[in-house]
Design a protein that fits this description.
269 residues, 8 helices, globular, 9 strands, 7-stranded parallel sheet
């Protein structure tokens, strides 16, 4: 039985869809399992800004799910969530950092250090607050830290400087964790272009003329062509990684991997 702490900022509905879809299967080794197995027999602590959708999930899995509500730019939420996890389930096996904000979407010349700092507080420093509080418990369990990164960490988009920089920082954080914390497996995962609220925000910027034309056309085209990923696709991979008791033996710690990398094929929906 694994205990996983994960953050949900804007994708709670998509995550609920992922959990409730009984037809979705993920291959784990030689066995096939349903997404519900993230909750049964495993235990999950969910963190998000609003309680409603998470409370619905808790009603479905009252023995396996705990909920923490708070603004993730508040660095006290990380320690609070870890403390809640230990009090409720007595241990922690996995941490999934799955929150972030895109704003400000501005060219560097038009942005301010204060705007960048606000984004980094959410995308990077709040993640650090969760990680530093989790490390003592993850050492004991020889657990896993999964950081949701982005293709923007290694590819440049005009007006995405703050966002891409924060994701690049998460990639480096995973690398540093891998050398400082050898008992913990730390990975940065690129989830691909997923049909989430952030993509709707991007399309809004695409049609407003803020983004460069080629970048705007790319994201509008992915949506119009029906090529956006479902949340359960990268979500299934991350869930599988979080509860894989043999992950440490794979020697992947410190890597930045795309959700559909061949190395992660066995977890893929």
């Amino acid at each position: 039985m694994y205990v996983v702490l994960t953050m949900l900022l804007v994708d709670v509905a998509a995550f609920l869809e992922f959990v409730s879809d009984i037809h979705t299967r993920v291959r784990s080794g030689k066995e096939t399992w349903h997404p519900e197995q993230l909750f049964s027999p495993h235990n999950v602590v969910l963190v998000a800004r609003t309680a409603g959708p998470m409370e619905e999930l808790k009603k479905q899995y009252p023995e396996q799910v705990e909920v923490v509500v708070g603004d993730l730019s508040d660095f006290k939420i990380g320690p609070q969530a870890v403390d809640t996890t230990i009090k409720r389930f007595s241990k922690l096996d996995g941490l999934i950092v799955n929150h972030g904000t895109l704003s400000p979407v501005k060219r560097i010349a038009d942005s301010t250090p204060e705007e960048w700092r606000t984004l980094f507080d959410v995308n990077f420093f709040s993640a650090l607050a969760f990680i530093t509080s989790s490390i003592p418990h993850l050492r004991k369990s020889q657990g896993t830290i999964l950081l949701t990164s982005s293709g923007a960490a290694v590819s440049s988009y005009s007006t995405w400087g703050p966002y891409g920089s924060s994701k690049a920082a998460l990639n480096h954080l995973a690398q540093t964790l891998s050398v400082e914390e050898p008992l913990i497996t730390s990975l940065a995962i690129r989830p691909g272009v997923v049909d989430t609220e952030m993509q709707r925000e991007i399309r809004g910027h695409s049609t407003s003329g803020v983004m460069d034309k080629k970048d705007a056309e790319k994201f509008l085209g992915l949506h119009e062509g029906g090529k956006l990923l479902k949340a359960e696709q990268p979500g299934g991979v991350m869930a599988g990684l979080a509860i894989d008791e043999n992950l440490k033996e794979e020697g992947l710690s410190g890597r930045f991997l795309s959700w559909d990398d061949k190395l992660l094929e066995k977890y893929r929906v």
